[in-house]
Model the fold of this input.
Amino acid sequence: MTTVTVPVQRDIKAELRRQADEMRRAFTERGTLVVNILSSPGAGKTSLLEATARYWRGKHRMAVLVGDLATDRDAQRLAPHCPVEQLTTGGACHLEIPLVKQGLTKLGSQDFDFLFIENVGNLVCPASHDLAEHVRVVLLSVTEGDDKPGKYPKMFRTSQALVISKTDLLEHVPFSVDAAVQDARKIQPELNVFPVCSLTEDGIEAWCTFLETERNALQSPHSRVDDKKVVTNDG
Ligand SMILES: Nc1nc2c(ncn2[C@@H]2O[C@H](COP(=O)(O)OP(=O)(O)OP(=O)(O)O)[C@@H](O)[C@H]2O)c(=O)[nH]1
Ligand SMILES: [Mg+2]
Done:
């Protein structure tokens, strides 16, 4: 008797990862650093991007793709600062490559130094999706509690940077920056950490310098694009 194996399912995620790798290589060649920003709802992603755009005004060309379940409110906030396209997921709790591609088409053929993707506010699902980024950043605001890294490990394990946001509120809440950083570095020892207050712009210079260094590394002859591959551990 002959055994025939009939494939009944395509590995859709593998195809999306392949597309993400291809897009990342193209961004690298164009000198565009792609940054995927993740956090729980309201941790301060859009505020961080507003502060970043204010800090870089006239220095770098930046654009933003911003994901939300509904409304274009974040795009309206960012529009005075830089080119922006809202990606409305219609209920989905994270962004995926096809929607990012649609946003890129709308942004047009202009080259940017930095492309930020503000993901849907959610500390779980976005961690599993590679959006062609070079750098993944997780925000943790001080009002959320310093115990969150260990409780949501995948988000921290797959990120290269941690922004601790709303530091102006530290005096009002029981949040230890040291405890949060220790907890996060148990999961991801290489994590770069940036305490930031987007309202006063305290910490924004260090954050922007980090991004500039990452972009310069893209253009270095020793840069290995494959090293920038995002680890999502999703099979
Ligand atoms: N005190 C204080 N408030 C902040 C800071 N950054 C943001 N906020 C406030 O936090 C709220 C949420 O900020 P957003 O920037 O909209 O947060 P977000 O993560 O983009 O929210 P979603 O896109 O809905 O997930 C707003 O009321 C901001 O003004 C900060 O550094 N300090
Ligand atoms: Mg936002």
Summary: Confidence is low (pLDDT under 50) at residues 224-229. The chain has one domain: 15-220. Strands lie at 33-38, 62-68, 84-88, 114-118, 135-141, 161-165, 192-196.
